[in-house]
Amino acid sequence: MTKQHTEVDKRRTFAIISHPDAGKTTITEQLLLFGGAIRQAGTVKGKKTGNFAKSDWMEIEKQRGISVTSSVMQFDYDGKRVNILDTPGHEDFSEDTYRTLMAVDAAVMVVDSAKGIEAQTKKLFKVCRMRGIPIFTFMNKLDRDGREPLDLLSELEEVLEIDSYPMNWPIGMGKGLEGLYDMYHNRVELYHPEKYGSEERFISLNEDGEIPAEHPLHQDSIYSQVLEDVELLQEAGNEFSEELVMAGELTPVFFGSALTNFGVQTFLETFLQFAPKPSSHKTKEGELVSPYEEEFSGFIFKIQANMNPAHRDRIAFLRVCSGTFERGMDVHLARTGKKMKLSNSTQFMADSRATVQEAVAGDIIGLYDTGNYQIGDTLFGGNFNVSYEDLPQFTPELFMKVTAKNVMKQKSFHKGMEQLVQEGAIQLYKTYHTEDYIIGAVGQLQFEVFQHRMLNEYNSEVIMTPMGSKTARWIDPEQLDEKMSSSRNILVKDRYDQPLFLFENNFAMRWFADKYPDVELKAKL
Ligand code: G4P
């Protein structure tokens, strides 16, 4: 096996998806602690302790004012090189959050066990499902009183329409949490082993799948409830199938508590056992490029702008799909055919350790960008001449009318609009006839970045008038009749001149669907 082959096989690249507050940051920190990438909890968020992981990334961040530290986190564990890609939520939610999911080979879904499946989890899950990547579930906050585990599993199956397989099962919860009945490893993991007079966290189950009779937990009514649940699951639940997990049709479910670091290591180890190696990627022509292919190639899935007015640069994040990326190598930009020399100052990787000079399939590299790159761009080495398929378009939910503040500066306004739209920072729509500009985004942050960049990079002050959230649906141009437009929707065209309606709300959309039953209303992802 070549060195490249061995290196590729070590990579495990995934994103953690969740609704804000479910515990994504907390579990990420625990994973980084296990991987030795940080030494203290609170590091990722930073604000808690003020201590940061010492790395090049921080230096870059200080110098450039770009927050890249947590965009990609890399560590080694059990002989694997793990890349965790951040999927920003809250006010940082943007199309980049979705696009990050295009660059991973698996996803970990963190669910708050008291709240169940929440809105943002659902949205991100949908994208993972569309890609058919394996999804692993971590039911978090077991140290608090939450919903019944069976209830959580059925919600998962009903709301997300994915089959589930519990890898372990909680023995109690909240104050009554005693441990995890780990059917996958045939053991019980104790929450506070000291209560039973031992340091030993794990108790092996006997051949009947039982805790030894002499163990105090054996008499506990909670434990007999667990046995009943497990029996029910064995009879009525799904069977474990690695094949279905790999196809993203069955999600292995782990219970635990990120905050008290309970069940996290078991999760990490089991996850790494199943998590897929870097996958092949499809070109525009529909051919698959193997991660073991020798020539270097990769695609840009995210462009992060510098919000520091002193620096206009951006960072383009590239997922390596094949070959070996070496510092200072020459590459071609597929869209333009332009040759680019990636000097040392234009790249950095998640891991700053001096030994890491190379990246292979599965790794993410950051490229300083002065305006050369767009979302979805392919870079390749040598004469490989490959171009990866376009990233999907996402349905925006928030809209703003936008105009230039200074009518004398129309030229810079239009230039900025065009470039930011092309780059993938924002989506642009125009009304019919009046050609008013409407921009669309999936999160508020996109508007703020847009406004900031228009001013700083294009010297164009924009006025944005919020239109609130709308339900956007595309229709077949052949079916378009401008009379369909009413006071409850706005007819616009996208940058490819495709018509769509922005409905005031779902009621307005249903009313339209009833009135024009033959017109198919299509959402993007
Ligand atoms: P997020 O990145 O998904 O938004 O969530 P984050 O990890 O920041 O966690 C959100 C809140 O939930 C935090 O508390 C965190 O301490 C808590 N939390 C995470 N995992 C667990 C868990 O397993 N059990 C319990 N009981 N709490 C958990 P906070 O008070 O909102 O924030 P902070 O002030 O502690 O940062």
TrEMBL record:
Single GO biological process annotation from the record: regulation of translational termination
Localization terms from the record: Cytoplasm
Main location (coarse class): cytoplasm
Keyword annotations: Cytoplasm, GTP-binding, Nucleotide-binding, Protein biosynthesis
Record-listed GTP binding positions: 18-25, 86-90, 140-143
Stated family: Belongs to the TRAFAC class translation factor GTPase superfamily. Classic translation factor GTPase family. PrfC subfamily.
PANTHER family tied to this protein: PEPTIDE CHAIN RELEASE FACTOR RF3
Name the UniProt record assigns to this protein: Peptide chain release factor 3
